[in-house]
């Protein structure tokens, strides 16, 4: 193999300010896709009324985005290593922005769902390679910790602020603008990416152009996300059949990767204890946090009687705390105590916050029953996410950084979708059972949410135990 094919896929710029400018561009691009996950939620009733969606059909406004997004992350992450991560990132921004315009101008259900699917594909292309580019731009541990903290803070704050933007744009203008707002942002981010991000050479398609393997893993991941996000609309036999099919595709992909000469996904990647362990911990941690974000909002509205705007204001302390702690303390704490200890401290706080939420009564108080647990969860997430990201990426070789980035984003989608599906199903089942036995609506609803929070506490505790064992370094 020639020397030109073994050089680093991303070469850091010579000037420090160029690297931080690159970080801003990467954050801006990722922020669009992160906002899209929450900004649509508030506008769903308006979309339903305007386009005439049924209750079941309305779910596909979200699912049509999640399935290609979650299913393609691993593939496009690997393609970023082969073709060049800057090329994949800028192409993703272009696809996502163009699809956003189609979503914003959609006047039919079919057009909106199709455009959302294309938007999901563009979001995957832009998101999958970001962490790989980031760790290559900042190889020095302290600077890398700062960069990851900034990136994580932008993502965490953006996910929550999307609720405000969605409500404001829908109420003041129309639901179309939750998508059209991406046009100016996307164009500016795309132009800045072309100018600021450093050109790099991928390793070439001949180093990993396993097209049958790509089809198998993409189909398996898309089917997995489809099973998770759509499980509520199907019976148990159909869900079991689709799950078995997804597992069969994963098994066929693993078998092919073990025997093909040029695998798309090198098996050695999963021999890294740090990378594999960090992704498993993330699935559990994100499942817990999604339970708080969505079920916590339902508790405020359906139990405490808050309206949508008041609920949004009630959640404001979370992104503020996450942003402040990540930007000001995370990198310094990692530098002083090490990523493993900071991660464990964060997971302890998350477990404690969920345990407090599991006591939320039917006639609760926002300050004592919601705000205090929320601040513990926010502090825990701010502490845990940057070191977890750094540990996952440190377990991959530089030529696999795009693939590792795509894998980390994939487990985030799977963890969030799985947590939301399981916890919301448990809460609904408990509430329905109590109502069938004659319980009043509000106490039954609160009891269902408490069950979900108790299960989420166990999941958070499992993440803590796994992190304490699987991610322990020789120095800790």
Automatic annotation (TrEMBL):
<feature type="transmembrane region" description="Helical">
    <location>
        <begin position="312"/>
        <end position="330"/>
    </location>
</feature>
<keyword id="KW-0472">Membrane</keyword>
<feature type="transmembrane region" description="Helical">
    <location>
        <begin position="56"/>
        <end position="76"/>
    </location>
</feature>
<feature type="transmembrane region" description="Helical">
    <location>
        <begin position="235"/>
        <end position="255"/>
    </location>
</feature>
<feature type="transmembrane region" description="Helical">
    <location>
        <begin position="113"/>
        <end position="136"/>
    </location>
</feature>
<feature type="transmembrane region" description="Helical">
    <location>
        <begin position="20"/>
        <end position="44"/>
    </location>
</feature>
<keyword id="KW-0046">Antibiotic resistance</keyword>
<feature type="transmembrane region" description="Helical">
    <location>
        <begin position="413"/>
        <end position="431"/>
    </location>
</feature>
<protein>
    <submittedName>
        <fullName>MFS transporter</fullName>
    </submittedName>
</protein>
<feature type="transmembrane region" description="Helical">
    <location>
        <begin position="451"/>
        <end position="471"/>
    </location>
</feature>
<feature type="transmembrane region" description="Helical">
    <location>
        <begin position="370"/>
        <end position="392"/>
    </location>
</feature>
<feature type="transmembrane region" description="Helical">
    <location>
        <begin position="88"/>
        <end position="107"/>
    </location>
</feature>
<keyword id="KW-1133">Transmembrane helix</keyword>
<dbReference type="InterPro" id="IPR011701">
    <property type="entry name" value="MFS"/>
</dbReference>
<feature type="transmembrane region" description="Helical">
    <location>
        <begin position="175"/>
        <end position="197"/>
    </location>
</feature>
<dbReference type="Pfam" id="PF07690">
    <property type="entry name" value="MFS_1"/>
</dbReference>
<keyword id="KW-0813">Transport</keyword>
<feature type="transmembrane region" description="Helical">
    <location>
        <begin position="209"/>
        <end position="229"/>
    </location>
</feature>
<feature type="transmembrane region" description="Helical">
    <location>
        <begin position="148"/>
        <end position="169"/>
    </location>
</feature>
<dbReference type="InterPro" id="IPR020846">
    <property type="entry name" value="MFS_dom"/>
</dbReference>
<dbReference type="InterPro" id="IPR004638">
    <property type="entry name" value="EmrB-like"/>
</dbReference>
<feature type="transmembrane region" description="Helical">
    <location>
        <begin position="276"/>
        <end position="300"/>
    </location>
</feature>
<feature type="domain" description="Major facilitator superfamily (MFS) profile">
    <location>
        <begin position="22"/>
        <end position="475"/>
    </location>
</feature>
<feature type="transmembrane region" description="Helical">
    <location>
        <begin position="342"/>
        <end position="358"/>
    </location>
</feature>
<keyword id="KW-1003">Cell membrane</keyword>
<dbReference type="InterPro" id="IPR036259">
    <property type="entry name" value="MFS_trans_sf"/>
</dbReference>
<keyword id="KW-0812">Transmembrane</keyword>
């Amino acid at each position: 193999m020639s020397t030109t094919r073994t050089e680093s896929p991303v070469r850091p710029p010579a000037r420090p300010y160029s690297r931080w400018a690159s970080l801003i561009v990467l954050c801006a691009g990722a922020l669009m896709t992160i906002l899209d996950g929450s900004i649509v939620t508030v506008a769903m009733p308006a979309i339903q009324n305007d386009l005439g969606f049924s209750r079941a059909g309305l779910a596909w406004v979200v699912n049509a985005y999640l399935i290609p997004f979650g299913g393609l992350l691993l593939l496009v992450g690997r393609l970023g290593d082969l073709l060049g991560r800057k090329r994949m990132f800028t192409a993703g921004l272009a696809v996502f922005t163009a699809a956003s315009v189609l979503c914003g101008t959609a006047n039919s259900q079919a057009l909106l769902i199709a455009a959302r699917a294309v938007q999901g594909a563009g979001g995957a292309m832009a998101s999958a390679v970001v962490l790989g580019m980031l760790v290559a731009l900042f190889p020095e541990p302290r600077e890398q910790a700062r960069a990851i903290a900034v990136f994580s803070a932008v993502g965490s704050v953006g996910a929550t602020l999307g609720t405000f933007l969605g409500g404001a744009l829908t109420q003041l203008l129309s639901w179309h603008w939750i998508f059209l707002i991406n046009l100016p942002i996307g164009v500016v981010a795309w132009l800045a990416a072309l100018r600021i991000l450093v050109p790099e050479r991928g390793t070439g398609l001949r180093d990993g152009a396993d097209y049958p393997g790509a089809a198998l893993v993409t189909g398996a991941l898309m089917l997995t996300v489809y099973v998770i996000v759509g499980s509520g609309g199907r019976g148990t036999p159909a869900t079991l059949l689709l799950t078995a099919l997804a597992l069969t595709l994963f098994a066929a992909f693993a078998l092919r990767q073990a025997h093909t000469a040029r695998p798309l996904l090198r098996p050695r990647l999963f021999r890294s204890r740090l990378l594999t362990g960090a992704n498993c911990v993330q699935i559990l941690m994100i499942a817990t946090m999604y339970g708080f974000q969505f079920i916590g909002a339902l508790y405020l509205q359906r139990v405490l009687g808050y309206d949508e705007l008041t609920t949004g204001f009630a959640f404001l302390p979370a992104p503020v705390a996450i942003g402040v702690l990540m930007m000001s303390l995370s990198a310094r704490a990692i530098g002083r105590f090490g990523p493993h200890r900071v991660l464990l401290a964060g997971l302890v706080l998350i477990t404690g916050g969920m345990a407090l939420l599991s006591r939320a009564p039917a006639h609760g108080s926002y300050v004592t029953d919601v705000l205090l647990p929320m601040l513990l969860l926010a502090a825990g997430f701010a502490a845990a996410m940057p070191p977890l990201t750094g540990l996952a990426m440190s377990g991959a070789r530089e030529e696999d950084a795009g693939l590792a980035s795509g894998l980390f984003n994939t487990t985030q989608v799977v963890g969030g979708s799985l947590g939301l599906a399981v916890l919301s199903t448990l809460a609904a089942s408990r509430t329905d059972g109590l109502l069938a036995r004659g319980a009043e609506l509000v106490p039954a609803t609160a009891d269902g949410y408490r069950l979900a929070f108790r299960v989420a506490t166990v999941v958070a505790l499992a993440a803590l135990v796994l992190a304490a064992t699987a991610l322990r370094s020789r120095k800790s």
